[in-house]
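User: For a reading group we're discussing how well predicted structures match intuition. Take Aminotransferase class I/classII large domain-containing protein. Before you show the prediction, I'll give you the sequence so everyone sees exactly what went in.
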Amino acid sequence: MCFTDLYDCFSLIIYLVPYYLDETTGWGLETSELRKRFEDAHSKGITVKALVVINPGNPTGQVLVEENQRQIIEFCKKESLVILADEVYQDNIYVEEKKFNSFKKIVRSMGYCDKDISLVSFHSASKGFYGECGQRGGYMEAIGFSYAVRKHIYKLACVNHCCPIMSGQILASLIMNPPKPGDESYESFTIERDGILSSLARRAKALEDGFNSIEGVTCNKAEGAMYLFPRIHLPKKAIEAAEAANSVPDTFYARRLLEATGMVVIPGSGFGQVPGTWHIRCSILPQEDKIPAIISRFKAFHESFMQEFQD
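Assistant: Thanks. Here is the predicted 3D structure of Aminotransferase class I/classII large domain-containing protein, as structure tokens, for the group to look at:
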């Protein structure tokens, strides 16, 4: 039997089962929503095996509270789901009332051990405040898996045909072992880290306030990560114009924004959003002193767009 036949015999059809965050609660992940999507998938004959959680969030920039994480863990334990926790923005927290808690930390605080739940945590050198000029390097920690499963994970990593990027590996190792008090580089590392994060916090707040000052735009608090996900309340005529152009309304809006201003945003439909709502994702990475001009240019475009398509 050739390799292709063997693959065909054991290949599986993989389904993505989407779920929605709750915009009204600051992009919370409600277990009632998870239950609804889980049961709907089951009714269609789909066996759900894992739950992907991004915390802090992309594209929404929220930071999950500990109680919400506990609810998610209990749901996954009850349904025997693997938790795939994308935690690459864990250092980027911009509000005093929130802090990052890893899913592993919460799992352990609940008294669960490896036999109770399976969890994979992901981190990256190309995200968070590190992001060294596009350098790529990351790692994951897997707990609650049998030796046989871990053996296959190691095998897949070893047979990767991509050559190793040494600088990315070095950066990943530095993230896992940052300078400690007393180290020669600790003071300069701390100054640079705190400077970057405080600047990102100011940028996030400035953009959040800027969006909320514009009629027809609402934006939840920028709690973490590097993104905001403002909602654009499009008039009916704009939606009809988008449909006539064979385009999704928020894509239509984003394209018009690009053509008019040169500003690039990602339509919310590229990530999934509650039907009938329209969003754009923008990053908080522009230089801090340029943000007022960005908001001014965006506001001028938005007001012109809304005037053009007013009902």
